[in-house]
Design brief:
The chain is an alpha/beta fold and 234 residues long. The radius of gyration is 17 Å and the shape is globular. A 7-stranded parallel sheet has the order 3-2-1-4-5-6-7, with helices on both faces. It has one domain: NAD(P)-binding Rossmann-like Domain (Rossmann fold, 3-Layer(aba) Sandwich). Helix 1 crosses helix 8, helix 3 runs parallel beside helix 4 and helix 4 packs parallel to helix 5. The longest helix has 29 residues. It contains 8 helices and 7 strands. GO terms for molecular function: oxidoreductase activity, acting on the CH-OH group of donors, NAD or NADP as acceptor. One of its GO terms (biological process) is fatty acid elongation. It comes from Marinobacter algicola DG893. Belongs to the short-chain dehydrogenases/reductases (SDR) family.
């Protein structure tokens, strides 16, 4: 039996990851930042929903300590603050604290248990790991940081038997992207740029995460793998 922690695993892309891992036989702890996120999570065999704020070292340490065995960490917890707010230093710092430092915090806390199990980490990068954002500079900076953090941890921990990779999702159908999907102008622009001509699904990200965690990817570390329907190639 293998055990996984999926931060931000109760909604959006994270919920797709939780489902994919559960279908593959993992026992998953999926976290949400609020009681509502935890309570709203649809019951799924093999998945337990728990509350976690990744900006709290105490909470992160506690949830890691709750695992007797930990084979995988998938960092999906993240925020984006639109309407130009991330140009303000306080909002910018808050976004980095969740998306980037929260990822490091969870990886570092789980390192010893992953060494014991020969486990693996998958972080969540973004198309904005490669492109800038005129409206969300904190999010873009944090996701660029996640990509470089992933490579750094992969280099540092490879000889300890811990692989560290990341997925870089393209445009995926979630509650976060619903306003864009419902905007004819934005949706057309996105889909016309995407060679596969459609929105991705959270489970499609989850299945790629599952591959990166698996023995089939045993010689893969430090990779930032786009899962974007071709968005990044045109």
């Amino acid at each position: 039996m293998k055990y996984a922690l999926v931060t931000g695993g109760t909604r959006g892309i994270g919920s797709g990851v939780s489902r994919s891992l559960a279908r593959a036989g993992y026992r998953v702890v999926a976290t949400g930042v609020s009681d509502q996120e935890v309570n709203d999570f649809e019951s799924l065999e093999g998945v337990v929903a728990r509350k976690l704020d990744v900006t709290s070292q105490e909470q992160v340490d506690a949830i890691i300590a709750s695992f007797e065995q930990l084979d995988a960490i998938v960092n999906c917890a993240g925020i984006i603050q639109r309407d130009g707010r991330e140009f303000e230093p306080d909002y910018f710092a808050q976004t980095l604290e969740v998306n980037l430092t929260g990822t490091l915090r969870t990886c570092h806390a789980g390192r010893a248990k992953l060494i014991e199990s020969g486990g693996s980490i998958v972080n969540t990068a973004s198309m904005l790991s490669f492109f800038g954002s005129a409206s969300a500079p904190g999010y873009a900076a944090s996701k660029g940081g996640v990509a470089q953090l992933t490579k750094s941890l992969a280099a540092a921990w490879a000889m300890e038997g811990v692989r560290v990779n990341a997925v870089a999702p393209g445009w995926v159908a979630t509650e976060l992207t619903r306003p864009l999907m419902e905007s004819d102008e934005r949706s057309v622009a996105i889909l016309s740029r995407t060679p596969m001509g459609r929105w991705g699904e959270p489970d499609e990200i989850g299945d790629v995460v599952l591959f990166l965690l698996s023995n089939q990817a045993r010689f893969v570390t430090g990779a930032i793998l786009p899962v974007d329907g071709g968005y990044s190639i045109v």
